[in-house]
Design brief:
This protein has a single domain, classed as 2-Layer Sandwich (Heat Shock Protein 90). It is 46% helix and 26% strand. It is built from five helices and five strands; from the N terminus they run βααββαααββ. The chain has a five-stranded antiparallel beta sheet with strand order 1-2-3-5-4, with helices on one face. Strand 4 (132-137) and strand 5 (142-152) form a beta hairpin. Helix 2 (28-48) packs antiparallel against helix 5 (118-127) and helix 4 (94-110) runs antiparallel to helix 5 (118-127). The longest helix is centred in the first third of the chain and has 21 residues, at 28-48. It starts with a strand and ends with a strand.
């Protein structure tokens, strides 16, 4: 098992992508999926988190694939809608997930929005696994949002 903990305080640059590629297993399709899931998780943390104080992102490489462990602070008022969205995503088949992803993308282009809510759908599509989320209150206004993602790459 090998763990890659990403320093969230640093900018994403060429060195980041080089390290991420080296961390992959050498197969182009797997490296692409690892990169896409990592970028979606980073975007989720930076866009929707309450700063980086309670944030971390690690990728664990093991015999059967990869596991991401993402943690970030979120406003407590988004816990219920986020939990409901993740539950909904987890109930969809692969085809339904892809269809909803396309529908959200089409609607966001129509209303000139910047892909609202696509990240979790993309993570579920790329990993082809259920999203495992948990929330812990840090007070009345802040909670931690933990998201674990698995990507199986070996039978």
């Amino acid at each position: 098992m090998l763990v890659y903990t990403i320093d969230l305080s640093r900018e994403i640059n060429e060195g980041f992508f080089y390290k991420l590629k080296q961390f992959g297993d050498g197969r182009l399709t797997v490296t692409k999926r690892v990169t896409e899931i990592t970028l979606e998780l980073l975007q989720n943390i930076r866009s929707h988190g309450n700063g980086l104080t309670h944030a971390s992102l690690s990728i664990i490489k093991h015999e059967s694939g990869f596991t991401w462990q993402s943690v970030n602070g979120v406003s407590s008022n988004v816990v219920k809608p986020l939990s409901e969205k993740i539950h909904h995503i987890n109930t969809l088949s692969g085809a339904e997930l892809q269809q909803q992803h396309k529908q959200i993308l089409a609607n966001s282009k129509h209303i000139q929005a910047i892909n609202p809510g696509l990240g979790l759908y993309r993570i579920a599509l790329r990993s082809q696994s259920k999203l495992r989320a948990s929330f812990k209150p840090l007070g009345s206004a802040l909670s931690t949002f933990s998201l674990d993602i698995n990507l199986a790459t070996h039978s």
